[in-house]
Amino acid sequence: MVIGVPAFAVFYNGLKLLTQRKLRSKKLSDVEEYYMNIDCLADESGVSIPFTEESTGIITKKVPKPKRRFALSRAFMKVWDTVVLIVVSVLRIVFMGLRYIFNRIHVWFINTFRGPDSQNKRDR
């Protein structure tokens, strides 16, 4: 991520500059708002033709929101949130226990095979 984000930023900026250069060479505007809500550009002049319903034949209308089919969805989500909270809490306790056990095994291993002073020398 440390390398990927700056590399993508450089790539994106280079692509943006290349696009702007191509648009300027064709004597078109490089401002993004110019190209919003247009149907097409005229052939030679580069004048934008605005988007209208008549130009495409598509009639836009608002789509109604679908009705909720499940009346129990809120109750289910409350139960689900509680179950997830309990499972996460139990897993946290289990992993804390495993961490303690592995830490004790590590200390035992150091004291048994390297001697009790090796841990103090390593910390200095």
How would you describe what is shown here?
The protein is mainly alpha-helical. The protein has two domains: 53 residues, no CATH class; 51 residues. Helix content is 59%, strand content 6%. The chain contains four helices and two strands. The protein has a two-stranded antiparallel ribbon with strand order 1-2. A hairpin with a 6-residue loop joins β1 and β2. The two termini are 34 Å apart. The model has no long low-confidence stretch (mean pLDDT 78).
Mean pLDDT: 78
Low-confidence stretches: none
Question: Structural class, judged by helices and strands?
Answer: mainly alpha
DSSP strand tally: 2
Largest sheet: 2 strands, antiparallel
Determine the fraction of residues in helical runs and give it as a percent range: 55-70%
SS strand fraction: 5-15%
H/E topology pattern? HEEHHH
Main sheet: strand order = 1-2
Rg, rounded, reads: 32 Å
Report, as a whole number of angstroms, the end-to-end distance: 34 Å
Q: Enumerate how many helices there are, as a single number.
A: 4
Shape, please?
flat
User: What number of structural domains do the residues give?
Assistant: 2
What topology does this entry show?
Elements lengths: L3 H22 L12 E4 L6 E3 L2 H4 L16 H41 L4 H6 L1
Antiparallel strand pairs: 1-2
Briefly characterize the structure:
The protein has 124 residues and is mainly alpha-helical. The protein has a two-stranded antiparallel ribbon.
Keyphrases for this structure?
single chain, 124 residues, mainly alpha, 2 domains, two-stranded antiparallel ribbon, flat
